[in-house]
Design a protein that fits this description.
The structure is a homodimer.
Chain A: E1 5-14, E2 18-25, E3 30-31, E4 35-38, H1 43-56, E5 63-70, E6 73-75, E7 79-82, H2 95-103, E8 107-111, H3 112-123, E9 132-137, E10 141-147, E11 150-151, H4 182-186, H5 188-200, H6 206-211, H7 218-226, H8 230-254, E12 258-262, H9 264-278, E13 292-295, H10 302-314, H11 317-320
Parallel strand pairs in A: 1-5, 5-8, 9-12, 12-13
Antiparallel strand pairs in A: 1-2, 2-3, 2-4, 6-7, 9-10, 10-11
Helix pairs in contact in A: 3-10, 7-9, 8-9
Chain lengths: 321, 321
């Protein structure tokens, strides 16, 4: 294998629509210009596109390793079992092994949300804590856990599925087929589903009206909230309660001094929403006094940079540097 | 500092009534004869007693390190903030630093339940899994978490307080002052409290009668269950539901293939109780299909041996061996 500069790693964010790659200095998080490319359909074309993108990165020839964040289920050894947002990726592909061979450098593959958590821990709002939970509240609810300064990794690539923790046994239907999961109360799609169910049952329809023919977006929630819409107030109070119960429980179990919250819903609703979580009467475990809730720093390219940091750590580049 | 055999470590279980110490080979868990001593009152006397006990252990002069499991809140750096079961230990004592100086060997201090979890992970029912949750259901409910093959450690010595995760916001009062915590439904004391409340309210009194003037013990639960007592059936179903909700959620968050259950209540009620947890309709997260529930192996001296394994790991004795 080629030997690169141990202080330079290429980080890649593989998204449903675009691939983004850049060289990163893991010690500082400093990154050079990004290379972008459209994400093609099918795993084989995606692998080709990844090779093209990565080898175009300025500094590639010096890089010691590559880290790739992917929007899917990543099993041990960098096997990507499925990527719901990439057409035709419905079967396991050994991405790490194939690209390690083609690129002649160690390639590390991880879930993109987990990469974002690593970036937030090393460079963002989670700096300085040995343990951390990050929760991203968007269409769904995802997250990741840092324990003993390292990203928690499960055996089956599903670690951090905080959106599927049960907050109300037998409660609202969840997209996964379960019931009463956090995501069905706090995720944008879960809130939308409940708003539409209530509207269909004859309740007030402000959110549905604001959305027009499209989805109810985070900004519609913010607008309806500003207007004092009772349904929106109630749905967001339930979202805050669900987050408070889950976050309090995880913070108690893992003794977390801080939890970082990000994602579209949190970004659009801002501090008042964090306050509603903090003040929830359903806050779990030892309660809000033991854990500080802060916004994510919304790091630029957190996925690509987090992937690079993770790769640097795993191949020991930082240690050798 | 004296240099010992890197393959020999002294493990100590500091209990409320007795101190137990023995030399352990961390690679195999093999331990020699134990030295026992009564636990005296007050931290100063306990430290003296620990030195006496440890230096009497066969093999002490060769040992590379000492690990001590204590029944209290252990902060970073081996400071024991409090030990409710040891008279007069209501203020922080830097146990690790003091004993390291007096013994001339690295001394590692950890919570005794966490030591038990390490033993179960390395030598018991958790062998072979990189992540693990162990839950001990006794008077209260305690536990510990292994992530990436290492014991999860918080900043404040409270990691593993699974008994204080909320299962029912606003629910039963918990000994900690909170409400609706797992422990108040599944712990022996929580079950006893509810049984007595129901009896005082005029409900059936079998459990209270079986206990006579003393506490309702796990064996009384088993007896009442065997007699088909409706109150006991109901209380244990609620206990199983609370455990199922919490265990399912934690297994989902951390992607755990296996959870180990131990402690007096689990031991006395046996497999039928584990089945009741597995079949609970309130099982949390992705449900019982993703996680296997197994009994702890009830390792002999799990506390002392776990403490030794933890010490060996932390001082790198295994690596040097």
């Amino acid at each position: 294998m080629a030997e690169g500069r141990p202080d330079l790693v290429v980080g890649v964010d593989l998204g449903g629509t675009k691939i983004l790659a850049r060289a990163v200095e893991p010690k500082t998080g400093t990154a050079n210009d990004r290379v972008k490319m459209k994400t093609p359909a099918g795993p084989a074309a995606v692998l080709d596109a990844l090779v093209t993108t990565i080898t175009q990165v300025d500094g590639w020839s010096d890089a010691a390793a590559v880290g790739i964040g992917v929007p899917g289920l990543v099993q041990r050894g960098g096997i990507v079992a499925r990527c719901p947002n990439i057409e035709g990726w419905d079967h396991p592909v050994p991405v790490a092994d194939e690209l390690t061979e083609r690129l002649g450098r160690p390639v590390i593959v991880a879930n993109d949300v987990n990469c974002g958590v690593v970036a937030e821990h090393r460079l963002g709002s989670g700096r300085g804590f040995t343990s951390l939970l990050a929760v991203f509240v968007g269409t769904g609810v995802g997250g990741g856990v840092i324990v003993n300064d390292h990203l928690a990794e499960g055996d089956r690539g599903m670690v951090g599925e905080i959106g599927h923790l049960t907050v109300e046994p037998g409660g609202r239907p969840c997209g996964c087929g379960g019931r009463g999961h956090l995501e069905s109360y706090a995720g944008r799609a879960g809130i939308e589903g409940e708003a539409r169910r209530r509207a269909e049952a004859g309740g007030p329809e402000l959110l549905v009206e604001l959305a027009g023919g499209g989805p109810i977006k985070s900004r519609h929630l913010a607008t309806a909230l500003a207007k004092g819409d009772p349904t929106t107030l109630e749905l967001l109070a339930e979202a805050a309660d669900a987050l408070a119960l889950t976050i309090g429980n995880v913070a108690t179990l893992l003794d977390l001094p801080r939890v970082v919250l990000g994602g579209g819903v949190v970004d659009k609703l801002g501090d008042p929403f964090l306050d509603e979580i903090r003040q929830s009467r359903r806050f779990g475990g030892f309660g809000p006094d033991i854990v500080e809730l802060v916004s994510a720093e919304r790091l630029d390219d957190a996925g690509a940079i987090g992937a690079a940091l993770l790769a640097a750590e795993r191949v020991g580049a930082l240690v050798e540097a």
